[in-house]
């Protein structure tokens, strides 16, 4: 219950919309439509981040779309619909910060859905056709082309150090080989250490080209950068 207006609110989104409308009306812009430019909910987060899950993200975004487009409006603006943009379409898997910052998307970075808020089309059902066809001989096994991610030669060392810190800070990535005493520590150079760390991240995330971008400082190569006992897997 709002003490000033006496209106009852069942959710914070309506309260925020009405607060913005009240401020705009006081300034003489009460007839200007309100657009929700960005709202969303993370589907994953750190252990200490409360209320982050796929179910909560799906429920929030699905109900937000349904509520703002229903025509019900808000307590102060009844019978209205609002244009809303959900943040975000894709997870931002290279974004720094807590895990939640990289998990606001409806889709993963590889374009597979995180969850459905009602926008995914149902697959079409095609009736099988019964016919006798002599099977053609199948192709031989495709050659596997190995790929690695390495820094561009002109990449700034400060940026490469940031790449190392980012890649080695990801869960499941072991950078002990480029720490003092590690098998890939020598030669002790930012370029060499960055190559190992960036490639580990690239390989761990499915070898997508965007996983080797690193702010346009990485490049995908088919030349194995391994040397001596230091193996780039």
Q: Summed up, what is this model?
A:
Keywords: Disulfide bond, Glycosidase, Hydrolase, Signal. The chain has 233 residues and is an alpha+beta fold. It has 4 helices and 4 strands.
SSE arrangement:
Layout: H1 12-26, E1 35-39, H2 54-68, E2 83-86, E3 148-151, H3 157-168, H4 190-204, E4 218-221
Parallel strand pairs: 1-2
Antiparallel strand pairs: 3-4
GO molecular function: hydrolase activity, hydrolyzing O-glycosyl compounds
Family: Belongs to the glycosyl hydrolase 17 family.
Protein name: X8 domain-containing protein
Word description of this protein:
- Helix 3 packs across helix 4.
- The chain is an alpha+beta fold and 233 residues long.
- It is 24% helix and 7% strand.
- The protein contains four helices and four strands.
- The strands form two sheets. A two-stranded parallel ribbon has the order 1-2. The protein has a two-stranded antiparallel sheet with strand order 3-4.
- Helix 2 links the parallel strand 1 and strand 2.
- The model has no long low-confidence stretch (mean pLDDT 87).
In total, the number of domains comes to 2
Please give the radius of gyration in angstroms.
25 Å
- The helix content, as a percent range, equals 10-25%
Shape: elongated
- Order of SSEs, N→C? HEHEEHHE
Distance between the termini: 60 Å
Strand order of the largest sheet: 1-2
Strand content: 5-15%
